[in-house]
Each structure stands twice: as C-alpha cells, then as structure tokens.
Write a structure and sequence with these properties.
heterodimer, A: 649 residues, alpha+beta, 10 strands, elongated, B: 257 residues, alpha/beta, 2 domains, four-stranded antiparallel beta sheet, 10 helices, disordered N terminus, binds adenosine-5'-triphosphate, binds magnesium ion
C-alpha cells in the first residue's frame, strides 16, 4: 500500500507538494505567533524600574498580547481555509481516479478514508517541516515586533517543549479537519463518473457552499451592520465581521465566476470574436467554474484581508481626527511632565487654561466586573470651556471630591446612572465614588473624568489646553511660554515642556496614530500575507497540473506553444479579476459597516478608502499570478504534445 | 460460502441452478424532463443467461451503454426491476452495490480506465485489496499471464499499447471472478489484430463458464457471441442466437431505413 501511495505521489506531486507547503507554512506561522504570545503574557518585568517605566512596559506587553492573539487567530483561520481549499483541489483533480476505484469495488467510506489518510500523511510531513520552518519565523516575528516597539527591547521568546505538541496537533488537526469536506466530496464521487469525460456535469455550487455562504453572510450582516454602534469599540466586531464576510463571499465565489466572465466578455467582445485564443480561454473559464473559484480563493483573502483591515483601521482613525477637532476648542496646547498650570494662567493674553492629566483607572460597579480604562483628571469649569460637549446628563461642574463623570456607553456597560456609585482604584487606593454626570460616547476620548485633585502631584504626563484672548495672538503667547516656562530656566529640573498650535498638534497626533496603525497592520498581516501569496502561487501551479492533456490537445489543434501560454495567462488574469472583485466586495462591506458606525458616533460623515493600497495589492496579485501562470504553462508544454495528449492515456 | 463454491465450480453450473445471470423486467430509464426528456430505455424485458456471451447492438444513442450501466448497478432506473444472479438490485443501497461490484460484476470499457499512476500488476490487484481479500501475488500474476501480459507486470498504463491496456483492464475485471463481465465496446479503440486477440480471450473465458454481456458496433465481434440483442430507441427489437457476422451486418443494415 505504501508503495502505491508513493507512486501516486510521484504522479501527482504538484498537488501533494502544494498541500504539504500550505500545512508547513501554516504550522510555522501559528507556532511562531503562539510562542511569542505565550512569552509576552508570561514574561516578568525586570525589577528596579520607575512606576512610569513599569506601566509603560506592562501596557506594551498587554497590547502586544492583544496583537499576537489576533495574529494567532488570523493565522489559524487562514491556515484552515487555505489547506482546505488545497485539499478540495486534490479531490477535484482526481475525481476520475476515485470514480474508478468505486467502479472496481471501493466503498464510499474507503475512498473517504483514503483521502483522510492522505491528509494525515501530508499533514504530518507538513508539520515536521513547519516546526523547523517555525524557528526562523519566530526569530523574524520577534525581531519585527521589537523593531516596531510592540515588544520591549531584549525580549526573547522562551522555547517550551510542549509547543512541539501544540504545533504537531495544529498541523495534523488543521490538515484533517480542513480535508473533511474534501473527503466527504471524494466519497460522494459516483462510479459512473469514471466513464464520462472530465467531470463536466460537476455542479459549481455545492449544497455546503450554499449553506456556509449564506450562514456566514447573515453572520457578517449582523457583525457589520447591526452591532458596530452597540459596542464600545467598533473594531471589536468589524474585524471579525470582515473575516466572516470573506468566508461568505469565498464560498459564494462560483456564483460570480460566470457573471464576471460574462462581463469581461462583454467589454472585450470585439477582441474575443477575432481571436480563437481568447475564445478558448473564455470557454475554459466557464467550463471550470470550480477550478476558477478555487484559484481565485487566495486572491479573495488577500484583497479582503489586507485592504479590508487597513481600510477599517483608517476609517476609525479618520473618525478620531474628526471627533478630536470637533470637541477641542482652544488655540494652544502645552504638554509637560510637571504642573505648570498656574504659571500658564498668569501669562498675558491667556484666557483659559484647562489642565488634563491622563490616568489609567480601574473601575467597577456593584453589578459588573472591574476593568482598566483611560481616564483624565480635570478642572470641570475650564474643561467645559475648552471642550464642545453636548448631551451631558447631570452637572459636570460638580466634579470634585469623591465624584466621577463617565462616558455614557461605558456607564451603561457598568449598569450605573447619574447618582449611582462605582469603585475606582487609583494609585493602589480604592475609592467609593459617585457618578456626577455622564457625557456622550466617543471613539477615542477618555471614558472617565476625575477631579483634578486626584492627579498625582509629581512627575506625570499632563496637557494644558489654552484659549487666548484678543489682546495677544496665539503665536506671541506661545513664544512667552517657551521663554518663561520654569523647566526652561536652569536649575528647576526638566519639565519637558512643549507648545504647539492645537490644530497642528491634533494632526500630528493623528499622523503618529496612523503610523502606529500601519505598524499594527504589518505586524498582524505581514506574515499572513506572505502565506497567502504562497497559497496563490500554489493554486495556480496545482490548477495547471492536470491540464497538460488539455494544453497538448490545444497544440495538436494548431495552437503554438506561446499561444497556449498566452491563453493560460489570459485565463489567469480573468481569475485575478474575479478574486480582486470579490475581495474588494468583502473589504468594501467591512469598510461600509465601520464607516456607518463611526459616522454615527462622530456625528459627521467620515470617508477614508484605501485606494492606493487596493491598487498595490491588485498589482501584486496580477504579477504573482500572471508570472506563475506563464512559468507553469511553459513547464507543462515542454514535452511534445503527442506524448501528453489523450492518445496515451 | 457462495464465493468458495464458485471458485471451484464452473459458473455455468451455478447458472444452471440459479437461472439467468442478469434479468431486466420492464425496465424504463428516463433522463431529464420537459424539453430535454430522453427515454433511454423503454420497457425493456430481457435475460442474459449464465455462462453465455451476449452481444448488445444498435445504432448510436439507442441505449446500449445505459442498459449496461443499469445491469452493473452503476445507474438508477425509473421503473421496472433488475436482478443480478437472482438478487434484486432495483432498490439496493450503496453498500449492497459496493458488495455487488466486489463479487458479482466486473467492467471493461472502451477507454480502458486504468489508474495511470499504478503498474499493471497494481491495477489488477486493486479490486482484491479494496475487498480486503487475502491477496496472493501469484493469483494476480496468473490472471495477467492468462491475458498474455506476464512480462509487463511493472509497466504503467502509459508504457503499454492500447491493446495491452485493454487486456490489463480485462485482467482487472476477472481477478475477482465475477458472476458477470460487462464490456462496453472493448474493441472499439483497438486495431483488428488487437481486437481479435481480445475477442479470442473473451471466447475462451466463456468456454470456461464466464458470463459476458458486451456492447459492440462490430458485426465480427458480435458473431463471436452466443446471442445478439438488438436495441433501437431504447427498445429491444430483435434477438439472434449464434448468428454469423453476415447475418448481423444485414440486420444492422435494416436499421438504416
Ligand atoms: N446522463 C445523461 N443525461 C441525459 N441523457 C443521457 C445521459 N446518458 C445518456 N443519455 C441519453 O440516453 C440515450 C442513450 O444513450 P446511451 O449512451 O445508452 O447510447 P448508446 O447506445 O450507448 O450510444 P453509442 O453507441 O453512441 O455509445 C442517448 O440519447 C443519450 O443522449
Ligand atoms: Mg455507448
């Protein structure tokens, strides 16, 4: 039996190598991010650091853990998807073999088991390779995350022996579960199919595609349309929504293949009628709907995930910009690490100074578990003068003593209303505090306002928003600050004061956030993208493998070798078009969902579409798929046509 | 039990006890519906006697392949009843049909249908492996030698000529010692020499008691059979016993009118 498996392997190696590679890269990716995640969660902070430094490191590790959790999740999902579609390929290409086995007495279960056995074998081989490949991948991942400052410098992942078991489990489980569908399909191949020419009557849309597609579509609808405005952070549901939408649209891709094919035919109709090559390419495409859909699948994921993810993040950032500009009402902003409020208020031309001290506070109510959130300590009167807030419930001016004001969404999450009580932990002390007011929900603003008296007196990051009066220009006030601030004069210790025009500062902060977002996108999707591109190449190679006979017949009919290559290239361009359009639909759905939610929260229409990225991803897909197609077709047509064609089959 | 008996007794003997190897009772098969409705078999009642060789003839599209597929349990019927070796397979489950393929029927087709990645020997051994039978290499080699390919055991299909491939397919169909061998145009892709060799082989098997049902367009091939059944438009319109090639050709010529 082993020898038979080996000879089957020799005959079908592109398909099997494809399956092994997809499992191996998937395992390497999951193993690397899981190991980094575990190390980040369990790493201890070196002693002897100041509280600020310690908090910074702890926050950094928490963020890194969240990020890595997302990487693990996406890697596992993409691995399932890609390994699954590779195995479907192996079945589609061997339907005739399976039918033949059925004809000579194999039971459906035997055929199904054969495929599962293969999956187990390929999964194990892939896993072994993947564990080895995982080692440089971990190094790279840690290097990348450290460079992007998501991980503290000098972070090193601890190697756990049990991670081997996890990797082995991951590889095998992914391979076997992902191949269940393919195995089921293989077992359903009817013996009579061995007698027909290539499975022409093969239904493009299987029942399971319909079921998965429609259920996922409904799920995506809920996640993208209904929930984004009902959770604190729209990204929490929009990112899963994007992934579910990608799954839905991939399952439904065969539906759009003829549609888009027809559309391209319509646009290029005159060309198609003139050249037999285009005509043939077009007919092939229609005949192989499932093959086209499977080849397009990784392109759908690539476009959907990369464009969707960064698009969604961009929209939120644009929303934050709108919101910040709308709410802040001042001329200058001063940041410092020591209190300089009194000094600022005494300057000529300064009308109002609002001090804000950002704090991390832990807060809980009688009904809910505690949570750590961003808060600021403020002087309510100055704050109300420098912030345009409408829709406050309660009296914010009474914010002093043991009182807090809460974001309305956050308050309802805590099940408290104005007048209710919450426990607030700050600087290690827990206080019973009354909710004096609630203010409208925002995307990015602090969830908790505290009386300024609770701000730490010593070294701490603080901000001052300044309104100037008509007697002096903002520029001259800024100059006064720069010249007279205590930190500037020698001897009174550094207070790291800097002054900016408020609008400039907002734009700069947004830019910084944009850069962080880009880093997050690269950190989350960078390696996954490499994986998807490998899967794209794989899909093209695998789908060309069983077409040698087709190509040979085309050449015997009178096409030159280059015409065959051109035909296959044309086909692959159409497949890319299909993948890009379906992927863009997925990305567009998620972007539309988050845009609606953000616009509702911010109060004005927010627009941010990542056209440039979309263009770049499309170019990558065209180049990768086109080049692979040309090379594989060249390789497949190297032999003289007669040797390959059906004549000897 | 039955199998053991068959291995030692000529199946003609068993056939004599058990009646016809395959029996069609008012079998109708309709494909499609509405505008694309095709009646491929129309109320066919026919028997294929045990230990004999029946040729099925008729114009293209007359339902010959359909009849063969139904007899072998590869295709469902719309109405009627089909019995193989006395067993009603009309409503057989997938498991029963699988068992049927392992023990009672063997197939040979025009386009050989070998597994391209396996050698001749592996192809022939496959049905035994699938049935989980103790496989003896000797048995497999004996069958391949019987079809004249004892020296081509480890050749792959692509390294064999068309006639040789067809003989591997016949060896594969015979290795399970089926009650009936179904062959759809087994000589259709062969030149006259190779065809003659295959037909001679079939004849000697029938003489050893094998039941064969063969679809063919070739009057010479049909003349080798014990009886010929003529189909037209899905109906059995004539039967002949041991006709000459000439008689068959004349009968076929009358279809043209
Ligand atoms: N799967 C199918 N779906 C629809 N119609 C079919 C199908 N299979 C066969 N037919 C129709 O049934 C009729 C009989 O077909 P069949 O293959 O049995 O003919 P045949 O006698 O074997 O012809 P030939 O000598 O050309 O092989 C034909 O008209 C054919 O078009
Ligand atoms: Mg036929």
């Amino acid at each position: 039996m082993l020898r038979m498996a080996w000879s089957t392997f020799l005959d079908r190696w592109p398909v099997f190598i494809g399956a092994i590679i997809t499992v191996a890269v998937g395992v390497a990716l999951v193993q690397a991010s899981l190991l980094t995640l575990i190390s980040a969660v369990s790493s201890t902070i070196p002693p002897g650091l100041s509280e600020i430094e310690e908090t910074a490191i702890r926050d950094g590790l928490t963020n890194a853990a969240g990020l890595l959790g997302m990487v693990v999740g996406i890697s596992v999902l993409v691995a399932f998807f890609i390994v699954g579609s590779t195995f479907s390929f192996t079945v589609a290409q061997r339907a005739r073999d399976f039918a033949l086995l059925r004809l000579v007495g194999a039971s459906p279960r035997q055929v199904g088991r054969l495929l599962l056995g293969e999956a187990l074998l390929l999964g194990s081989l892939g896993t072994i390779l993947g564990v080895l490949l995982g080692i440089p991948v971990i190094r790279f991942e840690v290097w990348m995350l450290t460079r992007m400052e998501f991980l503290p410098a000098g972070f090193s992942p601890d190697w756990h022996l049990w991670i081997l078991a996890v990797s082995a489990g991951t590889g095998t489980v992914v391979a076997v579960i992902a191949s269940l569908g393919a195995s089921h399909r293989a077992s359903r191949v009817r013996p009579l199919e061995a007698l027909r020419d290539a499975g022409g009557a093969d239904k493009a849309m299987s029942l399971s595609r319909w079921v998965i597609g429609l259920i996922a579509l409904a799920g995506a609808g809920v996640l993208l349309v209904v929930t984004p405005t009902r959770v604190g952070d729209p990204l929490e549901v929009v990112i899963p929504g994007l992934i579910v939408l990608i799954i839905a649209l991939s399952a439904l891709t065969p539906l759009v293949v003829p549609l888009i094919g027809g559309l391209i035919g319509l646009v290029l109709g005159p060309l198609l009628r003139q050249s037999p090559i285009y005509e043939l390419a077009h007919a092939n495409l229609r005949d192989g709907v499932r093959r086209s859909a499977s080849t397009a699948a990784p392109i759908v994921i690539l476009v959907g995930l990369v464009v969707g993810f960064s698009g969604v993040v961009n929209v939120v950032n644009a929303g934050i910009q709108e919101e910040t500009i709308r709410i802040l009402d001042g001329d200058l902003i001063v940041t410092a690490t020591k209190p300089v409020g009194e000094h600022l208020a005494a300057l000529d031309g300064v009308r109002t100074v609002s001090e804000e001290v950002p704090l991390r506070v832990w807060i809980e109510s009688a009904d809910t578990e505690g949570d750590t959130v961003n808060g600021i300590a403020i002087n309510p009167i100055a704050y109300l003068q420098t912030h345009r807030l409408s829709g406050i419930i309660g009296d914010l001016t009474g914010l002093q003593g043991e009182t807090v004001a809460l974001d309305q969404f956050f308050a309802s999450g805590l099940h408290v209303q104005v007048g209710g009580m919450v426990d607030v932990r700050l600087d290690g002390a827990t206080r019973d505090m009354q909710v004096i007011a609630t203010f409208p929900h925002t995307l990015s603003r602090p969830k908790v306002l505290l009386p300024i008296a609770l701000a730490p007196a010593g070294d701490h990051q603080r901000r001052y928003i300044i309104q100037t009066d008509e007697t002096e220009t903002a520029a001259s006030v800024a100059e006064q600050i720069t010249n007279t601030i205590p930190g500037r004069s020698a001897g009174s210790g550094p207070s790291n004061v800097s002054v900016s025009a408020l609008d400039d500062w907002v734009l700069r902060e947004i830019d910084i956030q944009g850069e962080v977002n880009l880093k997050i996108t690269i950190a989350v999707l960078g390696l996954v993208t490499v994986y998807i591109v490998i899967a794209m190449i794989n899909a093209v190679v695998i789908s060309a493998a069983p077409r040698r006979a087709d190509f040979a017949i085309a050449r015997l009919t009178g096409l030159s070798r280059w015409q065959v290559v051109w035909m296959a290239f044309w086909e692959s361009l159409t497949v890319v078009t299909i993948g890009v359009i379906v992927g863009a639909l997925a990305a567009g759905g998620a972007i539309a969902g988050v845009t609606a939610a953000v616009s509702e929260i911010v109060g004005t229409r927010v627009m941010a579409t990542p056209w440039a990225l979309f263009g770049a991803v499309t170019v990558v897909a065209v180049v990768v798929v086109g080049l692979t197609s040309v090379l594989t077709t060249l390789a497949a047509t190297r032999q003289p046509a007669v040797e390959v064609s059906g004549a000897r089959e | 039990m039955n199998e053991i008996v068959r291995e030692f007794a000529p199946s003609s003997l068993i056939g004599a006890i058990e009646g016809p190897a395959v029996e069609f009772r008012n079998v109708t098969r309709v494909y499609g519906s509405g505008g694309t409705r095709v009646v491929a078999l129309d109320d066919v009642t026919v028997e294929f006697p045990s230990g004999s060789w029946t040729a099925v003839m008729g114009p293209s599209g007359s339902g010959k392949s359909t009849l063969l597929h139904i007899a072998g349990g590869l295709e469902n019927i719309t109405s009627g009843q089909v019995l193989i070796d006395g067993q009603d397979i009309t409503d057989a489950s997938e498991a029963e049909l699988t068992r049927l393929r392992r023990t009672k029927v063997g197939f040979v087709f025009q386009n050989f249908n070998l597994l391209g990645s396996l050698t001749a020997e592996q192809n022939v051994a496959m049905p035994l492996k699938l049935a989980g039978r103790r496989r003896s290499r000797l048995e497999v080699r004996a069958v391949l030698t019987q079809v004249g390919l004892g020296d081509r055991l480890s050749h792959k299909p692509r390294e064999l000529s068309g006639g040789q491939q067809q003989r591997v397919a016949i060896a594969r169909a015979l290795v399970t010692k089926p009650t009936v061998l179904f062959a759809d145009e087994p000589t259709g892709a062969l030149d006259s020499n190779a065809a003659r060799a295959v037909l001679g082989m079939l004849r000697s098997m029938v003489d050893d008691g094998q039941t064969i049902v063969m679809v063919t367009h070739d009057p010479v091939a049909a003349a080798g059979a014990d009886q010929v059944v003529f189909l037209s438009d899905g109906r059995v319109i004539d039967q002949m016993v041991r006709p000459s090639a000439r008689e068959v050709a004349d009968r076929l010529a009358r279809f043209e009118e």
